[in-house]
Amino acid sequence: MRPGIVAAICLALIGGPLWAKLPAPPPMDDAQKAAAAAKAAKAAEAAKKENELLAKYQDLTAEKYKKAHAPKAAAAAAPAPKAAAAKK
Is the alpha carbon torsion for 25, 26, 30, 35 positive or negative? Predict the structure, then answer.
C-alpha cells in the first residue's frame, strides 16, 4: 500500500474521536447543589486556616532570623567607628 493511503486511514481513525462532543451533564438537583455548596464552604475554611498557619510560621521564621542575625549586625557596625578614629 502507498504511505499516503495508510496515513489517510490512520488520520480518519484517530481524528474521528477528536471531534466527538460529549453530552452535557445533567442539571444538578437541590441535594447536589447543597452538597456542592457545603464542599465549597469546607474548602474555603480549610484554605483560610492554611493561610493563617502560613502567616504564623512566616512570622516565627522572621523573628528567629532577626534574633540570629541582630548580634552580627551590631558587632559588624561597632568596629567601624574605632577604625575611623584610629586613622585620625
Answer: negative
